[in-house]
Amino acid sequence: MTERSGTVALVAGGSRGIGAATSRLLASLGMRVVVNYRSSDADADALVEAIRAAGGEAIALRADVRDPREVDELVKAVSARWGAVEVLVNTVRIPFAIKSFQDMSWEEFGGKLHDEMLAAFTLTKAVAPAMIDQGYGRIVHIATGLARQPRTEMIALGTSKAALVQFARYVAQELGPFGITVNVVSPGMVETDVAGKVSPQVRARLVAATPLGRIARPEDVAGVVAFYASDESGFMTGTYAPVNGGLAMD
Questions:
Q1: What is the CATH number of the domain that holds 192?
Q2: Which Pfam families does the record associate with it (predicted)?
Q3: Shortest CA distance to 226 belongs to which of 74, 7, 37, 44?
Q4: Is the predicted pLDDT of residue 31 greater than 80, yes or no?
Q5: Is 192 a member of any domain?
Q6: Which phi and psi (to 5°) does residue 206 adopt?
Q7: What pTM was computed for the model?
Q8: Per the domain annotation, does 239 fall within a domain?
Q9: Which domain, by its residues, includes 236?
């Protein structure tokens, strides 16, 4: 993959899981990585130290990306240090209720939908003006296969991510003329702390139904994100990339 040395990449939710794997990979490709996090100071600091020890450039900046004021301050801080954000990766993990529709309240369902879209909208809104000015930008959002393939008790997550996918398409259409691409990476289950909450029986069924015979690793997802963040993907926008080992062949 061609390196874009010095490219400024903001990885929202970048301190753990898919975000951390993405931060490490983008840094290894020569990008200057901003590890955004909300509460995991120790994880963010440890990740930045590891990236620097490997010869990469990274900083950790705290911000709740559901708060437009905090996001504005985040982007200003990045610009003051390294210049405009050229790559935005939204890996933010927002908590959600695991319940059936019949047992779920509007506060649980609507809260997840609201927070998911507020984060995506706020982040994209904050970086778009500078990307338009420079005639270049890469935006990548992380969704889930549940946006297309419903599963019991996952209605809040699946619906909010389906909205995110459609949001990305509309933004891709609008920002394309300015040299900005917007794409979605959609993993199945990934080996993170969230996967640890799944019962062994459900996990075994998923592995058995997956042609490649395992659960995805964060690095599997990060590799596809890095492709979308690179110049090799420059003529792809509004696309949806499943990373699920063949579990669902869209």
A1: 3.40.50.720
A2: adh_short_C2
A3: 7
A4: yes
A5: yes
A6: -65, -45
A7: 0.94
A8: yes
A9: 8-243
